[in-house]
Specification:
The structure is a single chain. With 132 residues, this protein is of the alpha+beta class. The protein contains three helices and seven strands; from the N terminus they run αββααβββββ. It has one domain. Helix content is 22%, strand content 43%. A seven-stranded antiparallel β-sheet has the order 2-1-7-6-5-4-3. The radius of gyration is 13 Å and the shape is globular.
């Protein structure tokens, strides 16, 4: 599995929401190596992934660009993006999967972000340097 798919899947299923209003771009994430901690059901899991400059550009883009990027990256998951709202550095994403519906809100800070989903998943991530 490519690192980008892991990152985008986290963006959708880990409640990573990216905000943008109108056609304005926002500095939500920076390219580089990211360490993401997902907490769900009393357990936590740490994932490291590389965000390319191209992926960061999509995540920092307008709502339409962000939606298209997430839909493309998660097409093989069987889940459908049902809503996306981006406002500044906060993004809310709703999806429908075979296991049910989920909505997550993510607040970005450039080199870190935190998310919370309606399924109880919490995500904390930080940029830890350049990609290997």
């Amino acid at each position: 599995m490519k690192h980008s798919i892991s990152y985008w899947s986290l963006a959708l299923f880990g409640a990573i929401a990216v905000p943008v209003s109108g056609a304005e771009a926002v500095d939500r994430v920076h390219p580089g190596q990211w360490e993401t901690t997902m907490e769900t059901g009393g357990r936590s899991r740490v994932i490291k992934s590389c965000v390319t400059p191209e992926e960061a550009q999509v995540m920092n883009g307008d709502e339409s660009t962000l939606k298209a990027g997430i839909e493309k990256a998660t097409a093989a998951t069987g889940c459908k993006l049902t809503a996306l709202k981006a406002s500044g550095s906060q993004v809310t994403i709703s999806s429908q999967c075979s296991i049910g519906a989920n909505t997550g809100t993510t607040t970005y800070h450039g080199d870190s972000y935190e998310s919370e989903n309606t399924n109880g998943t919490k995500v904390h991530a930080k940029r830890i340097g350049a990609c290997p």
